[in-house]
Amino acid sequence: MNKTSKTLPILAIVIGLLCSSCIENQSVSNPTPFDEQDLDACLAIVIDMSGSFSESWDDKAYDIFLNISDRYFQGAMGTETRLVIGQLSGNDQVLLFEGKPADLREKFRSPAELNQFLKSHADPSSSRVYDATRRTLDYVSSISGVGPNTRLLTVILSDMQDSQYHPSIASTAETQLAESLRRYQARGGSLALYHVAETERDHWSALLRNAGFTTGQFIIEGSLTSSPRLPSFE
């Protein structure tokens, strides 16, 4: 076999490897679902799926989510917005969904679909209120496109009673949460807490005020109406 005939198989192998690497690189370079653009508004809704709360929402969550989302994003047509949905329970997976507001109706076409989705990602054995709140605030603040002018609102539907931590170590969890609250408030974020137990309202009000939240930047209510009040965004 001459030198040329020996070289051809080697060249074929080299060309094949180069072509396969080109295909792989092209797939890796595909853009992510959300390109980096400045967001005008971002809303996160976290629902308590622990204990008795896991059964109390039933199909009500769907209407609540749509009502808050529609009102918050009212007038934001044509702008860049983001909606995040999460849950708090014994399950460590807090953040469940991120998309544009219209994606909520497309992904969940009925109350039963949303309810089943939430239940499938919940562990009602305990409530990780401190962790879920902290992780949600940190996540929202880090979303690509969130900047100084982005309106941020996090809504939590819970009695806000944490059953994960023993009182002896709860202070550490609160310290970590307080740091996240301060960072979130510094980014201009607002909070709305609904269905808060009477025994927890003063406690959470103090947490928020110590983190720098002022009247109008947060709402704490013991009940949830069909059209709940939202913080002001002046």
Description:
With 234 residues, the protein is an alpha/beta fold. Helices cover 46% and strands 16% of the residues. The protein has eight helices and six strands; from the N terminus they run H-E-H-H-E-E-H-H-H-E-H-E-H-E. It has helices spanning 3-28, 53-56, 60-72, 101-107, 111-120, 129-142, 167-186, 198-210; strands at residues 41-48, 81-88, 95-99, 151-157, 189-194, 218-220. A six-stranded mixed sheet has the order 3-2-1-4-5-6, with helices on both faces. A hairpin with a 6-residue loop joins strand 2 (81-88) and strand 3. The longest helix is centred in the first third of the chain and has 26 residues, at 3-28. The radius of gyration is 23 Å and the shape is globular. The relative contact order is 0.14. Residues 2-32 have low confidence and may be disordered.
Using the alpha-carbon principal axes, give the shape: globular
Please state how the strands of the largest beta sheet are arranged side by side. 3-2-1-4-5-6
Q: Which regions contain 5 or more consecutive residues with pLDDT less than 50?
A: 2-32
Q: What's the total count of β strands?
A: 6
What Rg do the Cα atoms give?
Answer: 23 Å
Number of helices: 8
Helical residues, percent: 40-55%
Largest sheet: 6 strands, mixed
Strand composition percent: 15-25%
Mean pLDDT: 83
